[in-house]
Design goal:
Elements lengths: L8 H12 L4 H6 L3 H4 L1 E2 L1 H19 L3 H15 L2 E2 L17
């Protein structure tokens, strides 16, 4: 594995995120509209964030607040959508009745 630095940290985080959902960058290149088909759960997103922020702090030599901001931009641009519909603790919105 190559050393993670400013030029490849984005690629590394994308690869890490895809590995969390059982996918690879090669699969993303072969799959049309993969960014709208593949999702992650809140728990996976929290683990990604917990991994990414200390890494960003180290690579960019910045404080936690700045690292959280950088992660926010990364997540907005490259983050997978969050879908918790596969978990048991969510209500199906179609079943809710509006009064």
């Amino acid at each position: 594995m190559n050393k993670i630095n400013r030029t490849n940290v984005g690629d590394h985080l994308i690869d890490y995120q895809l590995n969390m959902v059982g996918k690879t960058v090669a699969e993303a290149l072969r799959t049309e509209k993969w960014y709208s088909k593949w999702t992650m759960t809140d728990e996976q997103h929290d683990r990604l964030k917990a991994y990414a922020i200390p890494l960003i702090k180290k690579v960019f030599r910045c404080n936690k607040k700045r690292a959280e901001g950088i992660f926010g931009w990364f997540d907005l641009q490259f983050g997978l959508k969050i879908d918790n519909s596969k978990t048991n603790n969510n209500e199906n919105l179609e079943d809710l009745e509006l009064l």
